[in-house]
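HUMAN: Ready with one sample?

ASSISTANT:
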Amino acid sequence: MKAMRAPQFGGPELLRLEDAPDPQVKEGNVIIRVKATGINPADLVRLSGRYPQTLPLPYIPGTDVAGEVEALGAGVTQVRVGDRVFGRSLNGGGYAEKASLPASETIPLPANLSFAEGAAIPVPFYTAYVALHHKAALKAGETVLVSAGGGGVGVAAIQLAKAAGAQVFTTVGSQEKAERTKALGADVAMNYRTQDFATEVQKLTNGKGVDIIIENVATDNLAQDFVALARFGRIVLIGTGTGKAPEATFGVSTALMKDATAYGMVLGNSASSIPHIASTLTSMFAAGTIKAIVHKSYPLPAAPQALQDLLAGKVFGKLVLVPEAR
């Protein structure tokens, strides 16, 4: 098969289109012919070599894939050869023509979704669901602030929070993204380049603050998050921000006065919940309650450019690679 591989860890410029061994059929796994691969900020972390788990070299990035089932490992009964599916190719391997998925995370793709839309689902929507429902325990009528509302997790969190009956605030970097997040269900979209979001939130909530913050850019926002938070509010830390330093600071006294709770999360710790989450989400996608937003598709050899565009913030929703588009 063809795959984008890096001979060593580093930046996107190391990736090259090469011949690579096909993934082997293993018990409990599924091999798919990849039709689309979603690009995530975590791909850059793994490619850089900063991922805490040892990864094989040469390295093929990519976790979120959609395609057609090509082979089944022993014990796999829930899908059949030829089925349209999506899922996570764990620890990488998605920037390729074929990928291996655990059967438990090989999910039938709703008929109304394209392969590109399927590849835009796993990490962003699973993460947003865990953050809102498993961590923050969102209840209808609460207020939610989603940072970086134009990103993959942001787009997912806005829709899921709205579907759960929340009032949704978000931060974005342009007027265009403000309008697009409102179209997805955000009640208020603030431009972080021109507005102090914490001050705006306090004004708009009559000084109460928001009940929940889904924080995608903790390096920049964490200190102000505690200002924007209501008493007894919850912050769920999703990430530091694409390409940002891995540290953040905040005023302890503000956190104490708010009686705040901060949750960290990584999706890998929720693996056992993925089948249930996926079942819930696919029902919502099939009904049109939520949408997978694909900003742009790239041919597989253009993966370095796609990753650079992700770093530059040139995206609303998801960027995807399409292996067959050459």
